[in-house]
Amino acid sequence: MRVLQFGRFWNVEHGGLERHVTLLGQGLAGQGVEVVNLVAASGLVSSDETRGLYRLVRAPSFGMAYGTALSPALPLKALALHREQPFDLFHLHLPDPLSHLASILLPSNVPRVISWHSDIVRQKRLLKLYKPSLSRLVCQADALVAATQAHFDSSTQIPDCVPLARRHVIPYGLDYAPLQLNARTMALRDELRSRAGGRGLVFAMGRHVYYKGFDVLIRALELTDAFLVLGGNGPLRTSLEQQVAAMGLSDRVYFSGRIPEEDLSAYFHACDVFCLPSVEPSEAFGLVQLEAMACGKPVVCTQLGNGVNVVNVHGQTGFAVPVGDPVALGHCLARLLRDKTLCQILGAQGLHRTELYSVSAMTASHIKLYEELLSTR
Questions:
Q1: Judging by beta carbons within 10 Å of its beta carbon (0-12, 13-18, 19+), is residue 107 exposed, middle or buried?
Q2: Could you tell me which SUPFAM superfamilies the record lists for this protein (predicted)?
Q3: Which terminal residue of the chain, N or C, has fewer Cβ atoms less than 10 Å from its own Cβ?
Q4: What is the pTM of this model?
Q5: Rounded Cα gap, residues 57 and 376, in angstroms
Q6: Cβ-based neighbours of 38, under 8 Å, separated by 6 or more
Q7: Which domains does the chain have, with CATH numbers?
Q8: 269-315 per-position pLDDT tens digit
Q9: For residue range 6-19, what is the model confidence (pLDDT) as tens digits?
Q10: What is the rounded CA–CA span in Å between residue 200 and residue 212?
């Protein structure tokens, strides 16, 4: 079975969607599926390489605009790859207008699976023009996949023309092995704890973009005695640093920058609480919540009413507070940092919950779906 999977874009700051595409590609290839992940590069240099068991092809791009890679070469590359050796199935991950354009160019008789990661939230004016075409694409797909039922229930953009029989819930999965501590990461964990100076340590990470809500988390910090480690980079990094300085919190916030994957375990194990303060439903699942839970840490997220709240169950694995409310967030963090026993209970229950979200289960479910679609052709 040959599958062409569109992965939106590729760079060192890739987010949850891109991580999922990578993990799915690895999982499928590990089960004998011939996978090609086609993504937009972060610059004008293209590449074609083997990463582990799957093939990664990067099409040159002129950067990003409106959350989409500017890569006119990508749709043409998809067509060239199919002509080189035909694929049995195309797998798109939306929102991504670029792979949508590629799908229009590709033969219509090849099955299409669409993974719906989130609605388009910010580009409302462009959405008015794009939505009719998006609806046609989704209605014509052979299968529509979402990580939780809440993705389907909360979406205002999935058209009614998609029958229940073509809607499939397949939870995301993670490889938790890299989150195990070793001698080097234990030393880094201890260094981070020392940096906190005896304060409770709150960890948050992600691209520094508007919907992550890191500005709200920084405001919430005033209501606690906590030390915040904020991982990642992005266009709002400078403004967040300025906010911290203006609030007089520079001694209580550490901007770590991009965290190498091999160091992540140290950060999760160092913290007392992990926080996902997102303010828009663009955050539709939150893979980082699973990583925190796998390290036995309670999670505080926001009440987005989507997959985020399916992963982190309020009162069971952590808490969910009102969106964009620094007071509620601050009080919740302060409560957890005061109650170590509660943190341990929630952390243990979170660790148990991660068993529902494995790469092996995610991979097996996708292969089963692919085989069902191909058997009817």
A1: exposed
A2: UDP-Glycosyltransferase/glycogen phosphorylase
A3: C
A4: 0.88
A5: 29
A6: 4, 5, 6, 7, 57, 59, 74, 77, 78, 81, 102
A7: 2-173+358-375 (3.40.50.2000), 177-356 (3.40.50.2000)
A8: 999 999 999 999 989 899 999 999 999 999 999 999 999 999 999 99
A9: 987 665 455 678 88
A10: 22
